[in-house]
Amino acid sequence: DQQVKQNSPSLSVQEGRISILNCDYTNSMFDYFLWYKKYPAEGPTFLISISSIKDKNEDGRFTVFLNKSAKHLSLHIVPSQPGDSAVYFCAARGSDDYKLSFGAGTTVTVRA
Amino acid sequence: KAGVTQTPRYLIKTRGQQVTLSCSPISGHRSVSWYQQTPGQGLQFLFEYFSETQRNKGNFPGRFSGRQFSNSRSEMNVSTLELGDSALYLCASSSGPAGMGTEAFFGQGTRLTVV
Known about the structure:
The structure holds two protein chains of two kinds.
Chain A: E1 4-5, E2 10-14, E3 19-25, E4 30-38, E5 45-51, E6 56-59, E7 62-67, E8 72-77, E9 86-94, E10 101-102, E11 106-111
Parallel strand pairs in A: 2-11
Antiparallel strand pairs in A: 1-3, 3-8, 4-5, 4-9, 6-7, 7-8, 9-10, 9-11
Chain B: E1 5-7, E2 10-13, E3 19-24, E4 31-38, E5 42-50, E6 53-57, E7 64-68, E8 74-78, E9 87-94, E10 105-106, E11 110-114
Parallel strand pairs in B: 2-11
Antiparallel strand pairs in B: 1-3, 3-8, 4-5, 4-9, 5-6, 7-8, 9-10, 9-11
């Protein structure tokens, strides 16, 4: 039962433009949401997170938006750079829970 | 500060065999979680250990087991390997629940191929 879904397996964007990655979840008990980035042959690395009490969190070029009523979150990357080409995973967890539920990932390709 | 170390990096096993994977967490981290990554499935949670106790278990058959030692190092064992067990196995360590400034840090993973 996939509680976190990333319905777009891939995204291609031109360098300098905005990348928008989407994620939907079904478990209303999720309290924290995270985005991880993964390069081939490496483990996922943490990018940015957001608590359910917020609707936006920004860190440099990365902004995560949360719409609790729609059970939807998105990651915006502005401007996109070639080094952003990677697989991006959306993850979520409940309160005081160490277990993360991940989406299937979105492969981002930034074209020069 | 050393990161999460997983050994071996690559492994090829035959159906029916068993395998043991190892994970050394970041120093001071007491929680170790294991995930299986397969194409199109994302990361599937296997189990989580804290202070040598399994606190959480995912929806995997009993062939998948693990343990944690007093130094927080963890091992994962898969018995009677099946072709479908071929995957990247990732270990993550953390000092607290992810998202509270205590994010889960992942190792590079062990790529297991079952033939």
